[in-house]
Amino acid sequence: MKAQPQASHYINGSFVDDERGKPIPVIYPATGEIVATLHSATENIVELAVEAAREAQPAWARLKPVERGRVLRRAADILRARNDELARIETLDTGKAIQETLVADPASAADALEFFGGAVASFNGDYVDFGGSFAYTRREPLGVCVGIGAWNYPIQGAGWKSAPALAMGNAMVFKPSENTPLSALALAEIYAEAGLPAGLFNVVQGYGDVGHALASHPVVAKVSLTGSVPTGRKVLGLAGSLMKHATMELGGKSPLIIFDDADIENAVGGAMLANFYSTGQVCSNGTRVFVQEGLHDRFVDRLTERTKAIRIGDPLDPDTQMGPLINKAQHEKVLSYITIGKEEGATLHYGGAVPSLQGFEGGFFVEPTIFTDVSDGMRIAREEIFGPVMSVLRFASEDEVVTRANDTEYGLSAGVFTRDLPRAHRVIAELQAGSCWINNYNLAPVEIPFGGYKQSGIGRENSLAALDHYSQLKSVYVETGDVASPY
Ligand code: NAD
Q1: Is 410 helix (H, G, I), strand (E, B) or coil?
Q2: Is 140 a catalytic residue?
Q3: What's the pLDDT score for residue 386?
Q4: CA 235, CA 460: separation in Å to the nearest integer?
Q5: pLDDT tens per residue, range 464-483
């Protein structure tokens, strides 16, 4: 299986390479096979990309928003037309089941391009009346923005960052995760085909040091990172010290609260989506599943039945529901947390093993895993595992569960299942989390803001809020009378 792109980077409208850069092997997580080899950016490559973005940005910013939007909307159409081919690239890069990537990944990027391509034309400043004299505000682009992606949703991340940045009149240099470098290159080609002028969307590959070089570059006005909390602390600290704008989309350990009166099938389905989709590698996953005492045992029984039926295996088989984890390190990390959970005294209720799959012996598979009898202090209930490992915790009362749900440094997401809607709204209002769901989980339509409270991040992606974060506000006072000068 091969997925070698034309070259490692895409700068100023062309594929370029510099083979002096450290190799980046692209490993298909289902087999461990190397499907492509790219190179991490050298200093020269970083410089070329930032310079191309700086050169191209002013003319792009001078276009009417509706003209910029038209290019993005054309690119959205091309993304949709190439959906199946892009889904395959995404599956080779991430190992996620093709039945997911066919519906979720390029489609979500296309939604972002379409939404921001349309919304930007009505994202304007304000008019302030002073009874004669007046003021107005202008939304202006920041200039050159850097996007740094995680590996779980590569093309979605590239789309979620580049669409609001470009719509607003910025240029972007995007660095995908070193684990998943392929689909951002395909997006760059699609933008070019849609008519995006050269230099506005550049892709530079690399490890953390390349992310650091981009984020600290003097020409760069903003950095938007999706990644872990430790990386976020470093990048936000760097951006702060250089007075750059920053958006941080980081990790979580989100609570999903299921009350006795919930519809059990929907609650079980929601908990499975909140833990097993993308093999559990979703930042907003509801990995602490709090179930009220009266429903707990029935919930666990039904959850187990449905989890047993998950089809795990070849990610390119359309019937497969769960693929492998991203790489060996993540595989070891997830298995080590399963050992920790057992040692801490939680009950390994289901899963926890490496399945034996013929032809996929080199892959990074782990069974969907359910721990019960989990208590709040256990590491499996406190730390982000980023794999298909669900912790089920019992609770008695509403006040108790709200306190326990909020007892975490994270604050990305939260969910509530109940038929009592006043209670649902009351509980959601008390939860310290940025992206919440009532009677569903993990939906992230582009129309609503996405992002975290507390250590889970700063700023928002999606919705008009993202245009805010890719622009700066100029206020202009206009005098219509004489200047009242005391001098
Ligand atoms: P990571 O923090 O290891 O890496 C993220 C990106 O940062 C990569 O591109 C990496 O090369 C780069 N990087 C690493 N060190 C850097 C540095 N010093 N300066 C600049 N860039 C640097 O995260 P990951 O393992 O790729 O992704 C998993 C994490 O991302 C999880 O914690 C997950 O919860 C989080 N995540 C959050 C969201 C969200 O929207 N909130 C979405 C997806 C993933």
Answers
A1: coil
A2: no
A3: 98
A4: 16
A5: 999 999 999 999 999 999 99
Q: Average pLDDT, stretch 430-456?
A: 98
User: Quick one: pLDDT at residue 164?
Assistant: 98
55 given a catalytic annotation: no
User: 244 near 250, Cβ under 8 Å?
Assistant: no
Contacts of 400 (CB under 8 A, 6+ apart): none
**How crowded is residue 240: how many other Cβ atoms within 10 Å of its Cβ?**
10
Please, which residues have CB within 8 angstroms of residue 271's CB and are 6 or more apart in sequence? 256, 258, 286, 289, 299, 303, 390, 441
332 is catalytic: no
Q: In the prediction, which pLDDT does 341 show?
A: 98
Give me the pLDDT at residue 313, please.
98
Q: Token pair for residue 135?
A: 């003021």
Q: Is the CB of 205 under 6 A from ligand 1?
A: no
Are 127 and 204 in contact by the 8 Å Cβ rule? The answer is no
Q: What is the largest CA-CA distance in the chain?
A: 88
Mean pLDDT for 421-431 is 98
Query: Does residue 145 carry a catalytic annotation?
Result: no
Backbone angles phi, psi at 408, to 5 degrees: -155, 155
Q: Is 216 in the pocket of ligand 1 (CB under 6 A)?
A: no
Element (H, E) at 171: strand 171-175
Share of the chain above pLDDT 90, in %: 100
Query: Which residues, in sequence order, are CB contacts of 333 under 8 Å at separation 6+?
Result: 385, 386, 387
Residues 6+ apart with CB under 8 A from 399: none
Report the pLDDT averaged over residues 258-284. 98
Give, as one character, the DSSP assignment of residue 28.
E
Spatial strand order of the sheet with 413-417 comes to 347-350, 369-372, 389-395, 288-292, 255-258, 413-417, 435-438
How far from 285 is each of 26, 181, 231, 302, 355, CA to CA, in Å? 26, 24, 19, 20, 23
Rounded CA separation 457/466 (Å): 14
Model pLDDT, residue 1:
83
Mutate to test the pocket of ligand 1, among 24, 173, 175, 226 (most ligand atoms within 8 A of CB): 226
Torsion of the alpha carbons at 75, 81, 84 and 85, rounded to the nearest 10: -60
158 lines ligand 1 (CB under 6 A): no
207 lines ligand 1 (CB under 6 A): yes
